[in-house]
Amino acid sequence: MPPLPPSTRPPYKGTRRKLVLAFDVGTTYSGISYRFLLAVIINPRVEGLIPWLVSWTGRVPEVKGVTRFPAHEQTSGTSKIPTLIYYNGDGEVCAVGAEATVEDPALLATIRSLNNLNGALGVRFKPHLRSKTAPGRLINEYIPPLPPNKSIIEAFADFLLYLLQCASKYIQDTHPNGPRLWSSVEDSIDFVLSHPNGWEGMEQNQIRKAAVLAGLIPDSPSGHARIRFVTEGEASLHFAVQQGILVEAMEGGNAVVVVDAGGGTIDVSSYTSRQGHLTRLLLLNAGHFYGSLFVSIHARVYLQHFLADSPYLDDIEHIVECFDDTTKMRFKSDTNQQYIKFGSTRDNDATYNIRFGQLKLDGADVAGFFQPSVLCIVNAVLEQRRLSRARVQSVLMVGGFSSNDWLLQSVQYELGKYGLHVFRPADHINKAVSDGAVSFYFDNVVRVRVSKVTFGTLSSVEYNRKDPDQSRARSIFLDHSGDKRLPDQFNIVLRKNTQISEATEFRQRFDRVYSNRSDLRSVSTVIWCYRGTTNNPVWKSDDPGHYSELCTITADLSHM
Asked: Could you name the domain of life of the organism this protein comes from (predicted)?
């Protein structure tokens, strides 16, 4: 049987308050969820006089979300803000989130002037931090660059600090005795940061540096330990488990495919239940760059060509923004004409299908903007099903992009041909990642995972003059003992598609020779990943493009 929703989570029995904050920094929108663990130590001599205090002890923690943000105060229940930052020419933050979307003509004119003069405007920063294995042509071509004096780590730090400030104000304004509650936990907050499935150690390290720069945590081992990372796909799974919507889908040991369709990436993962715990089966082609942002990019490419000789070409930025805010969100039929309202009744040009400030598009053309994303999801799900050891019958759609009815209907139609049932949660679909990230911190229902690449180290081996393959002989070197050796042999520690539990260890023994005893005081080893198709890779030089560094492990041996 699959795990039940964590309504049976044991009550908190700690003796101090604790706050867990989850930040979902998306490509287009971001959200915050949190959970307080409240503990009250009751003096036995007065317990009988104030029995209501007993209700604070033994409470099951509840996930809450920040639903009020600056410039969104008038919108009740808003759970997300745009992932936007406006900088001035000196690299200082001018506006963030909803404040960066104000419809003030004077402010917009100033911002555009800054952008045209010196490129000091930073808008969409998250796509600039992506896996080295991810395609980047569309991103590089259509996503504005960061300001010249801003790094991606600094941009993330600015936004993380803003999210922390929003969480602080919301908690202090909405909780009883809020300021005192916040001050009791603000120096020891645990953070859960979600990220695309394709991100690995390199990207996590950059986000950790951004958290330090923003002042979320101190730059120390204990500070670093206050940050946990979770993939957006796994966070979405925890959300689904928390809502109790996977029980039927996973009956009889069936697997479910979770599709997290966001603004930048579409992450696809498979899970099944074994002995009451969830197992992550496969993670293939993680972090597909076909999120909702790319629907807008395809629309921009089409409109730039269509309006190439039109006086409205200079308004392309504004037209695409209007497409994002209305046409894209409301699109439901490829047989009906679609309209982008971008101007006033005085804007008319029959040559370019513009009448009364509205640009008319064929529904089939708009459907074409979505088609790459639809095909990406369909192909990824079918590949997951093909390689899954468990039967796949259900596909769960979460993430902001999944709220688009045309995307859902198209995926349902295509995957329905293969007998797959595609569904999405009825409520809080935009909060799936941030709420699920908090649940991951406490429950961590996924106990077994499958390695998606082969891990190992590079070492040298003794040169064998009788080896018939002498192509590597030119790489021979002498070690400290004077022996001839060949470099860069790949030694596998953990193979791809190996099931891994949290307590499993994979060990290999290696020897290292030093010329000086003092060199042994600190020893470092690089862990490498192999992403190619060879089942038993041996030499890095045979397939150099598919090897990448994962991390460096350093051991302090000075006390030995």
From this structure: Eukaryota
